[in-house]
Each structure stands twice: as structure tokens, then as C-alpha cells.
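Thread title: Can someone regenerate the structure for this chain?

I was given the following input by a collaborator and told the matching C-alpha cells would be attached. They weren't. Posting the sequence so someone can regenerate them.
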Amino acid sequence: MDPMRNQPSLAQKKGLNRVQANCLRSVIRHLFIVIPTAAAVVLSGCATTGSNDPLEANNRPMLQFNDALDQVALKPAATMYDKLPRPLKTGIANVFGNLVDAWTAVNNLLQGKVGDGLSDMMRVAVNSTFGLGGVLDIASEARIPKHKEDFGQTLGKWGVPAGPYVVLPFFGPSTFRDGAAMPVDLSLDPLARVVPSADQPIAFATRSVDGRASLLIAAMRANTTFSPIRRAMRSSQLNARLVKRVATNATASPIE
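Best answer:
Regenerated them for you:
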């Protein structure tokens, strides 16, 4: 036998080098995400103030920016999207929800909630197979409970304080802790893993429009615009996360 036949070819060596380089770039990219996040989280625990909104100078103009963006771009797109046939919209929402369940499973396991994590994994498995890739929500029909967890809630479970209320550009109301955790949520978003890079802007835009369209009915029922609804929901949203942390024996401080 020719001993040279067992040696990797030049093309194989180049392919291996590319894989190694891609792995290295991935590690470095996540380090640049995790390190600033950890630093920001530590600083959030040191921030103490008697004001309900210590970042109001930033929050007020940022809220106005988000509202203007919503009125000129997101709301019109959501209004057009809402005219699609209901089965199509339901299928799209189910696909996005199935991917969210995958990230929720990871965070539940990180929080030590093994039962919920395994339940979320079962939801993803059932919907991905019997639900045609998540288009059909078979898991809900089978009464497999659905949860919603992100890395900000995981940090809260680990005892990281929420920090002050902050309005983020494009993303809206949040807390300092959740804002610091957002780069991790975005970088490890399952949607970014299953959609090719070239198609990701369209995929993320579609998910944003789908989420915004779900709020149109609430706005119409309230006979008002989205802006007052979002401001009114600020305390309820943030305090709901606080209640959830207390329910899971996490250490947290009141947001308001």
C-alpha cells in the first residue's frame, strides 16, 4: 500500500485550517460578548439610587425615538402583515415560538430547573418532528407546558440585581441587567443558527413584525396608540419578571 494515501491532501489541510480558524473566531467573538456583559452586570449591582428612573435623561428621548420608529416603520409593516391569512400568520408565529422554546430550554437548565428544561426540549422535539418544523404547535395540543426564559432571567436566578430601568434603542423598556444580557441572547439566538447569514436580516425583521402585529389587536381594543400602551406596561412587565424571580427563589430588589 502507498503510505502517501493516508496523508491528508492539500485541500483537506486547507479545509481543516478553515474550520480551526472559524472555531477560533467564534470563541473570540463570544468572549467579546461575555466579558463586557459580565462587567456590566457587576456594575449594575453597585448602582444605588433613590430615584425610580435614574436614567430618565436617556430613557425619555430613547422612548421618543422608539415610538417614532414604530409609527413610521414597524406599525405600518405590522398592519400590512396582519392582512395575511390567519393560518399563515399562525404558522410563522409557531416557527418562531419553537425556536424560542429551544433557547428557553437552555436557560431553564442553566437556572437549575431541570424539569422545565426537559419539558421545553420535549416541546421542541415534538413540534420539530410532528409539527413540520414548528409550523404546527402539536406540543401545546398535547398540553406540554410552554415557558419563556432568557439570559437576563438566568442572571436574575443567579442573584444578579436588576439594576435601573432603561429604554434601549429598537428593543424598548428593559433593565440594566437584561440589557447587559441581551448580546448573549442575540448571539446564541437559535434563529441565527438555522437561517443562513444572508437571510438573517429578513428573518429577524419578519419576527419583529410578527411580534408587533400581535399588539395591534390590543391597541385597537384600548382605542389608543402603541406608545401609551408601552409606557403603561412598563411597571407591569418589569415587576412580572421580579415576581418570577421571587417565585424561583432568586434574590432580587424592587424595580419601582
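Confidence is low (pLDDT under 50) at residues 12-16, 44-49, 224-230, 248-256.
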